[in-house]
Amino acid sequence: MNPAAAQGLILHAHLATLAADHGYGLIEDGAIAWRKGRIAWLGPTAELPHAYDTLRATAVDAHGALLTPGLIDAHTHLVFAGERAQEFEQRLQGASYEAIARAGGGILATVRATRAADETGLLAASLPRARALLADGVTTLEIKSGYALDLPGETRMLRVARRIGDELGIEVRTTLLGLHALPGEFHSRRADYVREVCTHWLPHLHTEGLVDAVDAFCEGIGFSAAETRALFIAARALGLPVKLHADQLSNLHGAALAAEFAALSADHLECTDAAGVAALAAAGTVAMLLPGSFYVLRETRLPPIAALRAAQVPMAVATDLNPGTAPLRSLRVAMNMACTLFGLTPLEALRGVTVHAARALALNDRGRLAQGLRADLVLWDATAPAELSYWIGGTLARTVIAAGQRVV
Ligand code: NIG
Ligand code: FE
Predict the structure, then answer these.
(1) Which domains does the chain have, with CATH numbers?
(2) Tens digit of each residue's pLDDT (9 = 90 or more) over 93-134
(3) Which atom of ligand 1 approaches the CA of 248 most closely?
(4) Ligand 1, atom 12: nearest CA belongs to which residue?
(5) What is the pTM of this model?
(6) Which residues are bridge partners to 175 per DSSP?
């Protein structure tokens, strides 16, 4: 890292620090200084210590613009080849997501395209999606595998995920999603597939340094609770954290299962019941809300937002960016949907893509503005924090800084 490039100073910004347990943590006319990629000082501009005078020559005057922590998209499937616009048309004509999947489309259609792509092609197809997120303020990104469903292909996907982080100068956390769909060659050999993922792929990919967490699609058209449990036991044996696509289309009690394994997050949750919410609360598992797929599938059953709120389950918001249920390349649009469709407040939506998203990735060095944390910062063409959820379409980020370096 070039130390000169990883330091800087912004003056006269409207800081939303999110530093306390509640609220925006606003500092009007605030300044923020960073060195070696970490926040060195923040507070009222008028109180900036003289120690930072050397940074004044290159300081940026924000003229009252909003400054927040870099946004964190903690649930994406953005590495894949091809697209599924045809399925979008089929669904508009009445076909259901599940029926398309059972007929060999859906996830398996993307598996065919992704298997056919080499690493260069996969990177070229995926980078623009990551760039679109970054351009509007995302400085930390989670990316899942799960569209190759064979070991060479899953390896390729996870490598591409890491390369995206290197290429864009942002942090990418990888998740192995081997139990996403049953690949055709394992038809009628489900148990063999689950065993292969648990006892061979997972330890191998972990040794390669490609797995930060483990996920499964626990669903009627995915994998059962028992199969998911086997995977979680294998992950635990390797010391890897888990998360789960839980209770999206039906209630297989995925939230409770995730909580039992102290999952980082339980994701979707449209069909989660009161016992599931209580289990998440007791385990401290984050509820990862994905309004993009709810919108695309034209779901009507809402996640139990009021119960999650009452139980003080931390709620995160993510894009779920994927070719089937969420061709959504904007985390801010997901924030808007979380407010409009799920009834979150703009404050909850912002905490959901910062503080709570960081927690869902077990990253305690970001998601807030405080001394010593990573200098992941976004200066917005906005003044009020609610504007981040309010404006729909286009980009609002003016300047994006990741680990102290300007990336947009
Ligand atoms: O999170 N549910 C499983 N995975 C994705 C959808 C994947 C796809 O349809 O390609 C999701 O919604
Ligand atoms: Fe997903």
Answers:
(1) 8-69+369-406 (2.30.40.10), 71-360 (3.20.20.140)
(2) 999 999 999 999 999 999 999 999 999 999 999 999 999 999
(3) 2
(4) 325
(5) 0.98
(6) 144, 213
